[in-house]
């Protein structure tokens, strides 16, 4: 989830100046508008330690008119608060109609930290998040606008900031030591789970890359301004999931996605390829028998651009596995019987038995890729699918299965070259159709769909592997290596 | 929750015959209609042991056309099923578009039984129910009609049937011993929690009194027929809570409610009253100090008909308690500040500190009583309020507070008599207004609202006490005795 925000976005000083000026005027105006129409606005500022939540809030206090705006931090509970149910402290600070409240962490801080510290388990965290969903649903139904911002730092930047903090902490008594890398990791696990359960159509999360301070503040301001303006113009998303929503905040004009992070230069010589191929295939073969003995099932999903080499990669993998142990499932148009059921039914029914493997050439992700881009699923349908898919995969994982997900990434040039080759080669000609050319025309739409897919469904338990596939050798080896590593890790 | 269904409803043989004939024709017709419009119907048959779920399903198989209908029981998991995630067994048996599936227990059976047996805790049960909600939401969004029936037996009938079963079990090897009273109780706790979490606008529960077999089967058939016909006519409730829904199934024409169970003849002599009054007041006084020492807060809610004697009962109670320990809060029209917040805000803010007491003369239940009947809240608002109130109260209980809820019940005659008295008595005249007379005109609407309120919000942790208040002495003593018993139980 969080890897989708680590894009290295930044903003120059000059750009910041221009944007800030514009933004301030906008924020002041919309604050007055919503005060007049008596809409309560709640801004929740959350994120990893060191991301500068305090600086963001200071900025908001500078940008907004302080009259009609309050900021609340929830550090240690007061005696007054301890004597009441947990949510009492939040209720007493909820904004009245027409005013704005900024809450540090809000109702997220405590459960996330307690889960990260190991004092509550998954079920208890989920329960807290369920309560949170209900609370937010209730407040939103009552007319409140809730804007939830999550500030993320990449691991290196986080470590750098924590080091700085530790240096300060040695001299200044009130500064804590900051999260260690281990704590940071546990924190992200809890955070991801919490965000996933509370990212609803009415109260979506906005994830902001906080490595660059100027980008961070302008992004935050822009999201707030946009949501408040939408609300002022009367948009009130009533149906969860009805609003198209990209959780990763980018500044208008900047269109980086997670796919830009894939190093498409990666390549392997023929010799290296052959050497690695036979080594990994032997290892995967052995591991597949170990999985069989351990009665552990494996599900692998292959998605990617047309002509990215999914078929070839799958073949190199299945060559390594005893034919009795796997089924390769090519997902084409659904049968009549499948059409008579929910779209996930066809995948549930094919679920492998304990110890066996299923390899999907295209999968349930069609819902948020081709069905989204081609308009075969309605917006609220594919929006809802992220959660449906996460729930589905969570059930696989809970049952003890291994799930691997690959996106084979190539550049448009390489695709064009491969399309042309296919047209020229007699035995490959059938592989290229009108449709492939049409899909190619929608490259940018797919790029965006892939980015949203990774942002929503790359979870700690079921991460996506983005494979650099301009070089086919490299793609196949990357897939085999990942399969080997993941199987090994799961079985050890 | 379940007490609201224990109304002793039954059906004569002759009535059954007539109703059955009509029902069969209707069910067959609507089955064909939905087959044509390709709507999948899933009927979940659940409830306590001995309620006759098998008999109901046999009846449905007789009533419907067996082609296009399947019945599934989920006893022990097969090896095939054990090798897949838990929900796999349900997915494989989901009805295709145009057909009907009946599931015994469905996805409810396992979590409820495991919670009742103590092998999963509250958080884990809630998580399972959260998953269930999502599953049902997803299937409903895909066009499925899900009808959930819960068959309940009162404790005496349950015990009688279990005894019979135990007698049979001695001779027949395949018959189990049946639930003991203790198991029955644990089962109801788990069931109530599960039903409460999964009673949504799209997939509401229908609770059917199963003591009388004829009533049980006709009720079930009528609910199914009604829901299928609504669906055929194109009603597709999209917004949770948008449909007016009475969870307690009654047969059209029969209008019994839980209020009919209150024995309005109960009365006390002046002497008995005085004796009990001073005894209970002394005990409550002592207990209120114990609660203070234990830092345990108490919240009491008084609702009831106009002129039912709430004020008098509250006064007899507060007379017993040191004035420093309690606050009596009379809930009148909200202030400006309160209007600027969610309707629950005014109650959150008044929440007593640890060890103190708050007595509410009218309360948050106004949302589902006066606001519902007078149309001050929209249907989806008061429908959603049941869950909101349950969540709110659950937080009080979790925090360790004691919550007591009283409904003071009188007959319409007694109310009339008291209204007249008030009009004649100079110092009581101010207590009777135009509004009281207007409310009186809506007696039946209020009766229904009270019934739904009890059905939805009388939970194991926060039950309603229905007080027989035709006799004021009796009402006051019943309130005092309940307060004493509940405080004692909580503090011991």
Features:
homodimer, 492 residues, globular, Rossmann fold, five-stranded parallel beta sheet, alpha/beta
Topology:
2 copies of one chain form a homodimer.
Chain A: H1 13-36, E1 41-47, H2 53-63, E2 69-72, H3 79-82, H4 88-91, E3 100-104, H5 109-116, H6 122-141, E4 145-152, H7 155-169, H8 181-198, E5 205-209, H9 213-232, H10 270-293, E6 298-304, H11 310-318, E7 326-330, H12 336-339, H13 345-349, E8 357-361, H14 370-373, H15 379-398, E9 402-409, H16 412-424, H17 434-441, H18 443-457, E10 464-468, H19 472-491
Parallel strand pairs in A: 1-3, 1-4, 2-3, 4-5, 6-8, 6-9, 7-8, 9-10
Specify the number of helices of chain A. 19
CATH C-level class of the largest domain in chain A: Alpha Beta
Terminal CA distance of chain A reads 26 Å
Helix content of chain A: 40-55%
Quaternary organisation? homodimer
CATH superfamily label of the largest domain in chain A: P-loop containing nucleotide triphosphate hydrolases
Rg calc of chain A: 24 Å
Explain how this protein is built.
- The structure is a homodimer of 492-residue chains.
- Chain A has 492 residues and is of the alpha/beta class.
- In chain A, strands 2-3-1-4-5 form a five-stranded parallel β-sheet, with helices on both faces. A five-stranded parallel β-sheet of chain A has the order 7-8-6-9-10, with helices on both faces.
- Chain A is built from 19 helices and ten strands.
- Helices cover 50% and strands 12% of the residues of chain A.
- Chain A has two domains: 2-256, P-loop containing nucleotide triphosphate hydrolases (Rossmann fold), CATH 3.40.50; 260-491, P-loop containing nucleotide triphosphate hydrolases (Rossmann fold).
- The longest helix of chain A is centred in the N-terminal third of the chain and has 24 residues, at 13-36.
- Chain A has helices spanning 13-36, 53-63, 79-82, 88-91, 109-116, 122-141, 155-169, 181-198, 213-232, 270-293, 310-318, 336-339, 345-349, 370-373, 379-398, 412-424, 434-441, 443-457, 472-491, and strands at 41-47, 69-72, 100-104, 145-152, 205-209, 298-304, 326-330, 357-361, 402-409, 464-468.
- At the A-B interface, helix 6, helix 13 and helix 15 of A face helix 6, helix 13 and helix 15 of B.
